[in-house]
């Protein structure tokens, strides 16, 4: 592999690569990425190009990257009741009409958040006590169905609804957050972030956009959370108010597009202060009266691979006229308390090993 770049298209991470000589082995690249990075950061699709499109200054022109062709169900159809159940769940979660028995969940656009939805759907349909790690280990439909058959007699016990935590209870980190926090302490200069950016065209109401961002930050406690050290341990602390939208005007620069991309690139490499925060940064860069770049960066301890997509959907809904988005009945602190109380022993090991927060190292 000679060059590579990753960008967000819709809600999918797409990787583009060029090879030094001959076509690269995509499956080997994918497996290497899964071993070396958190699952949430692994591209859903890899596209091989002869060369990356470049701007006059030599930087990658992300707007000129081609959209990948969506994988289609071209193989043999699912066989037997269990394969058909898996196929029905995949189609519902992925928004597809059909899948084949040899399809790979992640090749079809699956990600860590959607894997959790598949797990919930399979438990509801079969009652099997599947561990989340199996969605990542048995990525082909036929493999997952076979595993489902071998565990059909084991009833699910972990599908309980997460309750609101006791307001008087001390807040705790989830096991996944604890792992991310420890890695951040070991590698203090690492920008362990989730990042996304969008080009916006037209007559933008910046004041309205600012209010919409504030409403989203108010809705999601995670975006207002920091992790100060208390008695030698990190403790989640939710601030009353969160960070505001930052606005910067580069329309007077010689190359506004390049200046905006550089600002977004720098933001994506932010090394957040977990103790003092904030751990969320939303930047709007004006390139022209009718052209803006919206750039969002969040530390991975309070976000995952689908966070940017959720943020964009809620922002679009609010900006387009929705009075408000529905309040969350459960916040991440509720989940963390529930997880700590419920997961122990072998089940804890299975769940944490498969979590989309964890970095699977070679």
Strand arrangement in the largest pleated sheet = 4-11-10-9
Return Rg in Å.
21 Å
Helix amount, in percent? 25-40%
CATH topology tier name of the largest domain: Chloramphenicol Acetyltransferase
A few lines on this structure:
With about 350 residues, this protein is α+β, with helices and mostly antiparallel strands. Helices cover about 35% and strands about 15% of the residues.
List the helices and strands and how they pair.
Elements: E1 3-9, E2 12-18, H1 26-36, E3 45-48, H2 80-94, H3 112-126, H4 133-137, H5 141-150, H6 175-186, E4 193-201, H7 206-219, E5 225-226, E6 229-230, E7 233-234, E8 237-238, E9 246-249, H8 256-268, E10 280-288, E11 291-299, H9 307-319, H10 332-342, H11 345-354
Parallel strand pairs: 2-3, 9-10
Antiparallel strand pairs: 1-2, 4-11, 5-8, 6-7, 10-11
Helix pairs in contact: 2-3, 2-5, 7-9
Molecular structure report:
The relative contact order is 0.14. This protein is globular. Mean pLDDT is 83; it is low at 155-159 and 353-362. The chain has 362 residues and is of the alpha+beta class. Helix 2 (80-94) packs across helix 3, helix 2 (80-94) packs across helix 5 and helix 7 packs across helix 9. The two termini are 19 Å apart. It folds into three domains: 3-64, ANL, C-terminal domain (GMP Synthetase, Chain A, domain 3, 2-Layer Sandwich), CATH 3.30.300; 80-158, Non-ribosomal Peptide Synthetase Peptidyl Carrier Protein, Chain A (Orthogonal Bundle), CATH 1.10.1200.10; 175-335, Chloramphenicol acetyltransferase-like domain (Chloramphenicol Acetyltransferase, 2-Layer Sandwich). The protein contains eleven helices and eleven strands.
